[in-house]
Amino acid sequence: MFAELEARTNRLTMERLANALARIPGVEGDIPVIFDADYKAGMVGIGMGAAAPQMVIASSRVPVDLIETRITVNGAGWRVVDCQADGDEAGLSVAMLEKA
Question: Which residues, in sequence order, are bridge partners of residue 70?
Answer without folding.
Answer: 79
